[in-house]
Amino acid sequence: MFQEFKSFIARGNVIDLAVGIIIGAAFTAIVSSMVDDLLNPILGLVTGGIDFTNKYVVLSGDVPAGASLQAARDSGAAVFAYGSFLMAVINFLIIAWVVFLLVKGVNRMQEAAARNREIPEETAPSAPTQEELLAQIRDLLADRANPV
Known about the structure:
Shape: elongated
Radius of gyration: 34 Å
Largest sheet: 2 strands, antiparallel
Number of strands: 2
Strand order of the largest sheet: 1-2
Structural class: mainly alpha
Distance between the termini: 84 Å
Number of domains: 2
Order of helices and strands: HHEHEHH
């Protein structure tokens, strides 16, 4: 059983998956920082600082008027926190857009690098055909046989 486990772990796709998960976790930190530290402040300026996080409806229980969502939850009231959900959807859309742009940029760089590595057929020197080589050999042998 240990040998079977060892062969399972040694497979390339398991290692690739592990590396992908680790890189994904690091990439998540970059994207989150980009959204939280760069994009959300700009969106806050554009929208006038609208934050839906504390928008909720009390379903049951007593909550003081104007209390924050956390205060309403702490009071034990059942709340329908639509603002938190809306902000999560907005953040998801922003993060998805940023990831899309980053992946699009990386794909462009990879395509440009691949184009630079390729040698177009027009510029590549063409090798002589077998018939051309035989004709050249024939001509060389004829010149040696009949010196001028």
